[in-house]
Amino acid sequence: MRPNQVPAGQLPSAFFDLPQPADFRENETRRLPLTADEQQRVLDKASQDKYTHAHNHWYRWKTIEAMKPQKVTAQQMRAWFEREAQRRLGQPYQVDDTNREIVEALCLYFAEDPEFEARGFGSLNKGILLRGPVGCGKTTLLTIFSHNPRLPYAVHPCRQLSDEYSVKETGGAPALYDYKHLIKIPVGKEAQFNYRTHAGICFDDLGTEDWQAKHMGKTLNVMEDVLCSRDDEVVAGDLPRYATHMTTNLPFNDMEIEDEATGKPVIVKGIESIYGTRCRSRIRGLFNVLTFPEVAYDRRG
Asked: What is the three-class DSSP state of 219?
């Protein structure tokens, strides 16, 4: 059937000025000429049918598109962040010179804006590692952003992982399984997470967990194991790098500081000492490091 041809049987007889039965003659072409009025009526009907078909195609497309992760701009992400912060904190989030650049970077990152890379913050293909002094707002920021309308993730304290590993009845390797993989979003909850099917994880406060957790006599550096396993998943193509985030107060290398109580120098262990050179290398591959300035004050005060 040609594109402009109307299927037989779809037009009612009222569309045509039919000849009287006595005047009708069969012919081999099985066609009768149309009057000008008939042609106009047929064209009007075909035009309406074409619109109906096009509308149906559009509506199905619109429905499917609406159930895909939607893009947002950095400005939209900032507006979302301010609303979400107000909702979670019960007051506006205070932006100042110690956190302004961090907030801007996170809005660019979670909007997947190329400006994040252009400004030298890192790669959109890596996760976020927030570092800074105690109480400067690392956990608060990444908790607020966890339900962002583009790249959602869950937040789990590192202490929780080592505690779960150590539980006699339910601990051990099986307790860490879910932390080494993408989180599947429950059916029916997709709309809350911008129609993503899976979410990432943010490990909060690296270094505060038990570095030598024990289960049934087996000792394990839980976070070293989990981070290296997630990196293995990345290499295997089963986990995007941007699905892992983290916060920490730890330096990367051991550093000497003055003990406030005694005034004597003490050594603060760094990430490489605690988790090993191999894990430290993998952290470089997994994360963009965003560091608060040393003058960032304790916002809990």
From this structure: strand
pLDDT of residue 146: 93
Of 257, 280, 251, residue with least CA distance to 131: 251
Alpha carbons 26 and 113: distance in angstroms, whole number: 70
Band of residue 244 on the pLDDT scale cut at 50, 70, 90: very high
- Give the pLDDT confidence score for residue 142 in this predicted structure: 96
Domain ranges of the chain: 123-291
State residue 4's pLDDT score: 46
Alpha helix (H) ranges present in the chain?
Answer: 36-66, 74-89, 100-110, 115-118, 138-144, 158-166, 222-235, 271-286
Encoded amino acid at 123, one letter: S
Angle between helix 74-89 and helix 100-110 axes, rounded to 10 deg: 120
| Contact yes or no for 286/275 (Cβ under 8 A) | no
Coil, strand or helix: which one is 209? Answer: coil
Q: Give 148: exposed, middle or buried? Use CB within 10 Å, 0-12, 13-18, 19+.
A: buried
Q: What is the mean pLDDT of residues 163-172?
A: 93
Tokens linked to 192: 């809350």
pTM, full prediction: 0.76
How far apart are alpha carbons 15 and 106 in whole angstroms? 64
- The structure tokens 């603060």 sit at 268
The predicted model gives 192-203 an average pLDDT of 82
Pick the CATH number of 123-291 from 3.30.30, 3.30.1120, 3.40.50, 3.10.20: 3.40.50
Vertex 151 angle, CA 146 and 155, to 5°:
30
Q: Chain-wide mean pLDDT for the chain?
A: 88
Q: Using an 8 Å Cβ cutoff, are 131 and 248 in contact?
A: yes
As a whole number, mean pLDDT of residues 224-235 equals 95
**What CA–CA distance (Å, rounded) separates 175 from 167?**
9
